[in-house]
């Protein structure tokens, strides 16, 4: 398998940053997906980059994207869609799961999606934010049965910081076998939690990432956050 040299042209953005621009999840975005059209080559390149997800843009005007972890292809994922929406500045994204609404609102980028598109996971509630903070990373495979998405998204631990205000403390443990013990910012899990609770949330996840959510008509959910550009593509 030979990778096209042009595919080294990719952006790196950080999604769901905190109020002071720290934290968040890194995302690789290959803007010219046509340089690497074969899914096997895309999977190999995503593994080579090593980000939790990499997005390949197949049509920047229509917002057609393809999402990969280092080990699998995903029909939908939260932070890749938020990052791609910010980078492409389009009103919608087309994913294998369906059409994702997108909008920019000041410092926040929002997507709108259906909860059933998110990979399944265990939403585990704790009594306090301190309990969530004290959790140890569980061994891979603990907490939920196998899913069609492999080990992805096994446990989402959460607790109310301020229930009246909708403030949540959360941590995500993917249980993956590629060395990723904890996911710093998980938009799909935030989407599922919002659907379960039926209310808008302000989530602090991981070391300090911020994810905002809001239920929408028709069972859809908006997920939003800050996005920062970390690295522009290299040009050969």
From TrEMBL:
Pfam families: PhzC-PhzF (PF02567). InterPro entries: Phenazine_PhzF-like (IPR003719). It comes from the Bacteria. The active site is at 53. GO terms for molecular function: catalytic activity. This is Phenazine biosynthesis protein PhzC/PhzF. It comes from Streptomyces ruber.
